[in-house]
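Notebook, p. 212. Picked up where the previous page left off. The plan for this session was modest: take the two constructs that came back from the sequencing core last week, fold each one, and keep the raw output in the notebook itself so nobody has to go hunting through shared drives later. Recording the first one now, exactly as returned: residue sequence, then the structure token string.
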Amino acid sequence: MSQPTLSRFADLAIAPPLLQAVEEVGYESPSPIQAQSIPPLLAGRDLLGQAQTGTGKTAAFALPLLSQLDLSQAHPQILVLAPTRELAIQVAEAMQTYARHLPGFHIATLYGGQNISTQLRQLRRGVHVVVGTPGRLIDHLLRGTLKLENLSTVVLDEADEMLRMGFIEDVEKILDETPKGRQVALFSATMPSAIRRVAQRHLNDPVEIKIKSKTATVSTVTQRYWQVRGLSKLDALTRILEVEDFEAMLVFVRTKVMAAELAEKLEARGYSSAVLSGDISQPLREKTIERIKAGRLDIIVATDVAARGLDVERISHVINYDIPYDTETYVHRIGRTGRAGRQGDAILFVSSREKRMLRSIEQATRQPIQPMQIPSHADIADRRIVQFKQVITDTIEDQDLDFFEDLISNYQQEQDLSLREIAASLAYLVQKDKPLVPPKEDLSSDPGHAVQTSNWAADLGKPSHQQMQLFRIEVGRQHEVKPKNIVGAIANEVNLAPRYIGQIKLFDTFSTVYLPECMPKPVFQHLKQVRVRGQKLNISLCTKEERSRKHSGKSSHKGRHKKHSHRKAKAGKR
């Protein structure tokens, strides 16, 4: 069934609190799967959707289904089945974000490998939405701890993947436990016969949607990706700008808010940049495009909607600062370079949790995307020196320097200085605002530091490196942070295994966390800049008074190694 593509989320009749959350996140317009799925799901229809990973399926079912929740009834009304714990967590976090303005909303994530007592507490508290993997959901059904009699909707996400992993029988068992009149939405990248049979048996007159993806990318574009770790994306982009030979660059982000912020930060770092987003008027858009065509602008930071129809031959590089939602968008993005037979470069920033989307892009485009190393401090220094030497060569070849030669000769005789001393002083004056060898003030920003971080983390297995200390971080309940957000941020940024992150306590404006005492200074400095929920950690070592102070309020999280953490903390004081 083909539906007209709508240009705004406001056109889709989702509940105002959800629309507010979407606008706050900064999404500009619904993707094809969202525009076609939301209306029938709002109308209570069953849905059979064929779409690749990363097409925006979560919002496609979450926004309409959350719009119809009865928050006064704290029992499962929506059940989402996912093939893996990673996808289950991803879906649950997205739904939590969309539901941020729904008062009293609760969601439970049920998957294997997690302490079941935690899951039992969530279910006893009362939840409106359950997201889980088939095996763990079956476990709860057998225990009698998951009740589905009041369920209104079931979502099967990535059904073909559940088939491939051998879960399809469990899926059928779960569906058999749901009420007969419930709504069902089934999403799958492919439609093998087994999935068709599930749909025929459990879906009632479903609306069928198929989102086609392009399967070829521009052959003149070299594609690379950088695994986001340690270094911030902004610092990584800055290093790329330092060493890549580019005429003009198009940087893609997901939201108009991020587009404005990134362009401003690039301008502050000395790069000529501008924004193209849904907030930009048509006259300003045309002026921006004319500037980059004429060479008066080097970088455009754009959202997907705003970059439609952009055709500028000067664009030699496309940076996917935020990974796109779907493969078709990726193809469209990198098609902005390599125009008219010219060679282009496309670079994709990928976090560890986005690796599945990277593989989907490679599969859909039938082209490998090669990993890349972000330039090091030494690479940047070498590049600046080469460029400086080239400027000298070009000046000697292109300019009439007779007047300056006489001036320097006279100055040399007057001051009794060598030409080497004079040349060095002039070189300093030219480059003092941009030193040829950048200062190593923040070694944690150097990609080479990732190795040091890794070695430090590896040493934690040694008895002499297991003492723990209590740290304070400036993010708390009022920032809507959860312990898992803190664990994820610290673990990912400094390659620290979660088992070395001890007890976390949340307070209104700050939190405390036990971390290894042997943390190197560069790692500590880097963690100061790490953001959780948009808030800098600004980590600091707790003072003696803070460690001994009796804080009121119950701890929101007790780490797996609470006793270990306290024991090592005490050992550190001896």
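Okay, moving on. Second construct, recorded in the same format:
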Amino acid sequence: MGVEVGLAGSYWAKDTSVEVLDCTLGDLLRRAAAEVPERIALVEGIEDHAVRRRWSYRALLEAAEQVAHALLSRFASGERIAVWAPNCPEWILLQHGAGLAGIVLVPVNPAFLADELTHVLKTSEVAGVFYASLYRNNDLSAVLSSVRARLPHLRETVCLSDWEDFVDSASASTPLPAIAPGDMVQIQYTSGTTGFPKGACLHQRGIVNASRFAALRAGFGDGGVWINAMPLFHVGGCGVSAVGALAQRGTFVLMPGFDAAKMLEMIESEGGTATLVVPTMLVAMLDHPDRPRRDLSSLKLILSGASAVPATLVRRTTTTFGCKFSILFGQTELNGVITQTGGDDSPEDQAETVGRPLPQMELKIADPISGEVLPLDTSGEICARGYQTMKGYFNAADATGATLREDGWLHTGDLGAMDERGYVRVTGRLKDMIIRGGENIYPREIEEVLFDHPGIAHVCVIGLPDERWGEVVAAVIRLSANDGTAPDAAPPCAAFVDGLHAWCRSRLAAYKTPAVWFFIDEWPLTASGKVRRHVLREQILGGGHRGLVATKTPVQPVG
């Protein structure tokens, strides 16, 4: 990654030095099973060591083929089945089985309630649903029963508690079809930080190579041990983590969900070498009282992304864990990662950029209106073109055309800038941009300044309506715990707020400095760990947000 490029404009021609594997998910699994049949491929990362289930690559392929035969006894290739369950080995077996059978998997967030579930199942026209009976005391069976009449394409439902009966229904006489690398493999619904989520149609070639390239760029070695607590219904879980580990013939340790203490124990007990965590998860691991007493010497690599990764967090992580760090940037519509930092990048590039484009990906920073390439170090829309763009949004031609243009460029809606070496800085989202008195303000720039304050653990900057300016800048903050810099008493005193204002004012223009301050303990998050900015804004405007607001007038309670 140290090669000097010297670009003339914000355009990166695809790097063809690493080939795209023209293969399917099934091909990848068969290759690993042939090359390292007895190596452990999958571990059920539950708390009790004694009953953790383990699959070698040989056993995983055999189980996946049996699942594929069972699926084909009920569904035809090309049909869609949903999996509505938290992380579990059966989820992975379904992913591999569906891939071998040519059946399209539709991952569904197990936290969804009736209307959210109906939207995904109805718009994707699923023929079958595989579901857990319970999730966080929510009776999924009852919810599914309540909406079934609204789902005209749904024929079959299978509870995962009946998994063995389902697998036993397989008939080996049903031949597995020939699957092409360009065939659809999943419909992944966008996280829905605003509006209704859309179903991005991902393909075999895309999810295999985007995940493989991410593992290679990060430095995840052959046979490494990947500890995963990311939700499998997100492309970071079922793609980057699961398929990235598979591409390097590694061991994938699947935790039911994230818990900082259990994650630290799992790294120690399973000899974890790598993990992908969003910043909120990483902070929880660093701050957990169990961390100093755990032997985490096996940990060589931490990957992070999904939301802003502040420079202070990068430095703290590498110092505390003694590991390498890799920042990922991408989106569901691109089968996962498109730019990434690597282990050989300088500390400054690690802390301040999201790296260079991955191999075989063409990228430009474009004027959001004209699509023209912008000069270097100029903020514009990040657009990508290459093998890993989605096939489109399922049954949504208008939405597809607005995002994936006829010339092949996918418009991400993310704002960024590129330097002469091809390194990209993310500056925000088009829809998050704040317009104050005609000036465009990008929240991420302000967030990075506040992240450097020792009293702040996490921050989200949003725009609030204002009669005079149109919008004003508001900062929503979670304070650091027990570092001695945060105010001693809650709520934060006016003097502390004045200090934050001065901190920003010494680093930012006056119009970018927040005029309104909120302090909270917990964020409204998507399942992938992103702050739901529109929810935060609605809570504040509706007076239902727990916290405090301070302007240049005395601090006043909200709600």
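Notes on construct two before I forget. The longest strand covers residues 456-466.
Flagging for discussion at group meeting.
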